[in-house]
From TrEMBL:
InterPro entries: DUF624. Pfam families: DUF624 (PF04854). Keywords: Membrane, Transmembrane, Transmembrane helix. This is DUF624 domain-containing protein. It comes from Gracilibacillus salinarum. The chain crosses the membrane at residues 20-41, 47-71, 99-119, 125-151, 163-186, 192-215.
């Protein structure tokens, strides 16, 4: 009886944590969220796209780093007196590294998006190549967040190790890609309530869990 209640409490506690940190992630990324909502309502235009590209390194990347850092603490069973205070602390602590890396990665994502838009429709092979490269770039970005949350490294080492891990462990890359694609597909095409409460935190939780299991295996 007590064991069953303990498991139930543990599950509900994790659900509450994931929901709260996902909402915090969206709130700290609010300018981008607002621009995306405007784009959905009014359609894609150059002004909105430019706003997203310019603001993403300074808004989404620090918020995502804080998201991964909070989840990392939970997986390592480290106490947090307040999710909000922990999120703010990690947001501020890693802001500079997040922004610098965000500028570079946003530039790469922008180049990929332009090439995909103009070239992928020309033939199926190009479409496949761009999709594969997009997934690799996505996993690289995820690995960067995991490493920034877990290690005390300079940026050059973080970029290098994230690159080596992405290309050097193809199974890890495929698993994280599949998990993320499934969560995004279900969130967008079926369970829309996941988007404000669980989509980002679920991807971060599962991705960091996979990364951390790999890390424990090789230390």
């Amino acid at each position: 009886m007590h064991q069953g209640l303990g498991k139930f409490y543990g599950v509900t506690d994790w659900i509450a944590r994931l929901a709260v940190v996902n909402v915090l992630w969206l709130l700290f990324s609010f300018p981008i969220v607002l621009l995306l909502l405007n784009m959905i309502v009014t359609g894609v235009n150059a002004v909105l796209l430019a706003g997203i590209i310019i603001l993403t390194p300074f808004v989404v990347f620090p918020a995502s780093t804080a998201l991964f850092a909070c989840i990392r603490d939970w997986i390592l069973d480290r106490d947090q007196h307040s999710i909000f205070s922990s999120f703010c602390r990690y947001y501020v602590r890693n802001y500079r590294k997040s922004c610098i890396s965000g500028i570079l990665l946003t530039a790469v994502w922008t180049i990929w998006g332009i090439d995909y838009y103009y070239l992928s429709s020309r033939n199926v092979m190009l479409l496949f190549v761009f999709l594969v490269f997009g997934l690799i770039l996505f996993v690289y970005t995820i690995h960067f967040f995991s490493m920034l949350a877990h290690f005390e490294m300079n940026l050059r080492m973080l970029w290098k190790n994230a690159f080596l891990l992405t290309l050097g462990r193809p199974l890890l890359t495929v698993v994280i890609s599949l998990v993320s694609v499934v969560i995004l597909y279900v969130s967008i095409n079926g369970l829309l309530f996941l988007l404000p409460f669980f989509t980002g935190s679920l991807i971060a939780f599962l991705s960091f869990s996979i990364f951390y299991r790999w890390y424990l295996h090789f230390i």
